[in-house]
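A reminder from the course coordinator: this example appears on the midterm review sheet, so study it carefully.

Given structure:
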């Protein structure tokens, strides 16, 4: 511009376009940053919830995995009879 003042208008116009493009790039980067921060936060929440579910499953695993083993038919019959009695009591209490 200093060497040829007649071209200063074209140089200024070019610089204006560069600035406009730069502002667009910055705005796009800001949008992408917000989007990726949202995704990262959602992923972190997912992992936290997944760990909570895993801990809960680990806590109840011994209760769920408790095997009830009957070695004889009388033991099976006794357990079924106890279940029936419990069911009758439950129904009699209006539950």
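Designed residues:
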């Amino acid at each position: 511009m200093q060497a040829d003042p007649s071209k200063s208008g074209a140089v200024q116009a070019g610089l204006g376009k560069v600035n406009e493009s730069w502002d667009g790039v910055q705005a796009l980067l800001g949008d992408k940053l917000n989007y990726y921060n949202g995704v990262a936060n959602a992923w972190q929440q997912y992992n936290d919830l997944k760990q909570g579910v895993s801990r809960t499953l680990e806590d109840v695993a011994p209760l769920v995995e408790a095997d009830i083993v009957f070695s004889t038919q009388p033991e099976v019959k006794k357990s079924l009879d106890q279940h029936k009695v419990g069911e009758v009591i439950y129904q009699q209490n209006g539950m």
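The two ends are 93 Å apart (CA to CA). Residues 27 and 33 are 10 Å apart (CA to CA).
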